[in-house]
Amino acid sequence: MTEQQKLPIVVLVSGSGSNLQAIIDAAAQDLPVEIRAVISNRADAYGLERAKRAAIPARLLDHTDYPDRESYDRALMALIDDYSPALVVLAGFMRILTPGFVNHYKERLLNIHPSLLPKYRGLHTHQRALEAGDPVHGASVHLVTEELDGGPVILQVRVPVEPDDDESTLAARVLTQEHLIYPLAIRWIAEGRLRVNDGTLELDGQALQGPVIMEFNQVTNG
After folding, report:
1. What is the pTM assigned to this prediction?
2. Domain assignments of the chain as residue spans, ordered by start
3. Which residues are annotated as a binding site for (6R)-10-formyltetrahydrofolate?
């Protein structure tokens, strides 16, 4: 597959970038994407080092250099648009995005969230699932809208909560599955299988009535 046939993407990170690494690894195999840049708002984000090691342009745009969220997001849009991506992928980008940013990339902005949305939007999802006594937790890939963690959900993976789980063990189990479902959802977009038609998600030409649900350790690359 030529570079022209690959989906151009830009990935935004704030931390370690393990989901970024999953995408890099998948792209090195057969995921049909071209990662044109990795951008972070934090100088200490290890995701930038992951990008450099993969010979991907790594760009820092420090949010503390800007007086407010709106001015930062305008600068971020300008930087992203320099790379002309068809899809912007949030991989642990820990900032609440302004409506102007979200609307600029409407239906082209993807996120992964560590819960079975609409449950547990926001932070501390694993601890909240444990405190609620949930037997099943998980992760969701969704399009980003102005509503926090509220966009249409494409794909979810259900992860069992074990009796002896604490926040760290549950988070680790969920993260292994994030590394599988995020490249899979991106693959569906890159291959043209997943489309947005008048706000409705369609997979293989059929409208999704809800997210595709996968079970723990049953995720494939297909």
Report:
1. 0.94
2. 7-215
3. 69, 94-97, 111
Cα distance between residue 106 and residue 212, in whole Å: 21
Report CA torsion sign: 149, 134, 180, 49. Answer: positive
> Catalytic site residues?
113
Question: For the chain, which ranges sit under pLDDT 50?
Answer: 220-222
| Residue 45 near residue 13 (C-beta atoms within 8 A) | yes
The identity of residue 202, as a single letter, is E
Binding residue positions: 17-19, 69, 94-97, 111
DSSP state of 207: E
CATH code for the domain defined by 7-215 = 3.40.50.170
Q: What's residue 67's pLDDT?
A: 97
Amino acid at 5: Q
pLDDT at 219: 56
Pairing of strands 136-143, 7-13: unpaired
- Cβ neighbours of residue 131 under 8 Å, at least 6 residues apart? none
Q: How far apart are CA 17 and CA 5, in angstroms?
A: 26
- Residue 77 corresponds to which amino acid? M
